[in-house]
Amino acid sequence: MARIGRRKLLQLSGAGAIAARTGGIAAILASGNAPAHAQGTTVHWLRWNDFVPTSDAVLRNQIIPACAKDLGITLNIEMINGNDIQARTTAAIQSGTGPDVICALNNWPQLYAESVADVSDVAEKIGKAQGGFYNESTVVANNGKKWLGVPWCVVGAENAYRKSWFEAVGYNKFPETWDEYRDAGKKLKAKGQPIGQAMGHSFGDPPTFFYPYLWSWGGMEVDKGGKTVMLDSKATVESVKYWTAFWKDCCDEGGLAWDDSSNNRAFLSGTISSTLNGASIYLLAKREPDKYQTEKGAPLWQDILHGVLPKGPAGAFAYHLPMTNMLMGYSKQQDAAKKFLAWMTSKPVYQTWFDSQGGYSVGATTIWEQEPVWDKDPVMLPYRRAARAGHFPGYVGPADRYAAEVLSKYIIIDMYAKAVQGMAAEDAVKWATGEVKKIHA
Amino acid sequence: MAISDVVTQRAFVRAPQRGATTRLLEDERWLAAALLLPTIVLLGLFIAYPFAEGVWLSVTDARVGVPGTFVGLANFEALWDDSIFGTAVWNTFVYTAVATVFKLALGLWLALLLNRNFRGKAFTRAFILLPFIIPTVLSTFAWKWMFDPTFSVINWTLFQFGLIHSRINWLGDPALALISVIIVNVWRGVPFYAISLLAGLQTINPELEEAAAIDGARPWQRFWHVTWPLLLPVTMVVVLFSVIQTFADFQLVYVLTGGGPANATQLFATYAYQIGIGTGLLSQGAAISLAMFPFLLIIVVVQLLYIRRVEVH
């Protein structure tokens, strides 16, 4: 009898197991399909857990099968907390292995310029076909030499506010200037309905409020060329002084510890009257009218409106959160990943995802302003063209890696937070200027 | 029986030949080396290599995806001027010192209680380990909710009992935020102290205490003159481990405050993460991490010397 060794046994049992699972070669031939591993390539896409959960379901249930059908590519979508994407990106770049495509927030693509593939061909084609990218999407995804990623979307940031509460203090529409907003806020806080503003270390709401606030006073980090630090100015000091008083007069002081979801919870539970946020508060309240109600028992969503950030001495400004899909340089699936990016951002495919967002984010290109979603719900209208007015940290200078560093160290946010905690406005500005100068040194 | 038969039946059997490896391993020096090899490989791979890589990174200008070039001590010089780094150093010392004192005091107290005989002793011992068993991130999220500025159950309870009239801003106030993270660290660390010190207490011969009691020593005197000196070596080792862990703590602060508000809870590890991962400046992140090393080294050496002194005595 032939002797069967350990190695031979493993080979035989492995083959047997495969044959048993698949029905053997005969079954493969009968089906006319190659086994899954031979059908095509797999593209691994890392992105955040969406604030609109329906969109994640659409990606899983519709986009993955469509991708396999249209491109023969197995799409593996991984969703993680937005605050953890950078850790994954760094680990992937340093080890040279990981997701093929990473959906970056803010100006992170500028931080990884040396480690991402050039996707200029895809980005330019999409931009051309869809009415051009918004400026904010362009400055974060293009470093002047190449497209570091294909712009994906812009999450609009507007003030969600309680219509009836503002009306009760004499504001039938959202305040247009900081003085008006402060006046309303003072009255509201006196009634136990303060304004809520996140000031913690989190990527979304704190920066999207404090950068435009600084700009609205005429403050800026650097000059237009991005070489000279301009933060220590009269305008910045004035903005800090004003904010300190605003905070005391109008705001929920818990905001110092808030992250991007804390203000959503506070608003939905009826403890704050207004907060800068994506449309997720309104969309969630609308989706679950029985759960989120006003103090009178009416659906909360019917009492929510959106307003743009008030204007200061230098005008009204905005900063919306851009997202960009980076094709990683280490990826072994360059062609497949490019094909996927072109396909995913093409009008018919993107449409499926865009519709599921219900206006929470706008496309990175201008054609998405024409969508019927904007006509369906007037409350969402402020988000429609929001991205047109958006600027990015670094403004009036470039959104380069220095600006990215200032942003990721939360220096501008902490400048205001320090003042709120008791530091003199001049000292807070000096501290922040020193930090920004060190980054630009 | 003929002689030839005997020879045939009891053929000469050679002793099994020993291979070269076997002969080599019979030498104790080679055997010791062979037995140590797996440990050396593991330590080299998971401790020495990352440490050396960290040292190298800290003297370059490497960024994510860019290997960088040698810049000498420039990163450390930059840290010297960095006010956030200064805050992180101060916070780390306060965090470690205060948390360690409380963990030791509460842990010792708990260990002394658990060392007594009472009903449900085994259950209680298992139960107090819970904070240590639950994954830190999970329990810290629960604490985050308890400290939430809007929904804090602690505030609610204090309010219901009429102890406060306005809410306490646990994580929003800079001083309170540091106190809050220390509270969570103490909560998580006490079981480790309690169980380790309990193990130490059980090695002490009860006859010693009984003898002291017969001699008229009161409970406090028995603890101070008999139990504590005998428990001291174990205590020092437990404190040593705890100090190292607390000094390099990351996940607790990262989840609770992310280092905020305005860096009020920034520690070595969270700042290193923010710079190395958040900003992509791997070299500066490594320099911050490495700056912990001399402090930790001094603490460890002092403690080890003290342990040796205690053991000699």
Short summary:
With 441 residues, chain A is α+β, with helices and mostly antiparallel strands. Chain A is built from 21 helices and nine strands. In chain A, the strands form two sheets. Chain A has a six-stranded mixed β-sheet, with helices on both faces.
Structure in words:
The complex is a heterodimer of chains A (441) and B (313). Chain A is of the alpha+beta class and 441 residues long. Chain A has two domains: 37-154 and 320-380, Periplasmic binding protein-like II (D-Maltodextrin-Binding Protein, domain 2, 3-Layer(aba) Sandwich); 158-319 and 409-440, Periplasmic binding protein-like II (D-Maltodextrin-Binding Protein, domain 2, 3-Layer(aba) Sandwich), CATH 3.40.190. Chain A is built from 21 helices and nine strands. In chain A, the strands form two sheets. A six-stranded mixed β-sheet of chain A has the order 2-1-3-8-4-9, with helices on both faces. Chain A is globular and about 65 Å long. The model of chain A is unreliable at 8-38 (pLDDT under 50). Chain B is mostly helical and 313 residues long. Chain B has a domain at 86-267 and 293-312: MetI-like (MetI-like fold), CATH 1.10.3720. Helices cover 73% and strands 0% of the residues of chain B. In chain B, helix 10 packs across helix 12 (219-247), helix 11 (206-214) packs antiparallel against helix 12 (219-247) and helix 12 (219-247) packs antiparallel against helix 15. Classes of the chains: A alpha+beta (441), B mainly alpha (313). The interface between A and B is large, with 44 and 40 residues.
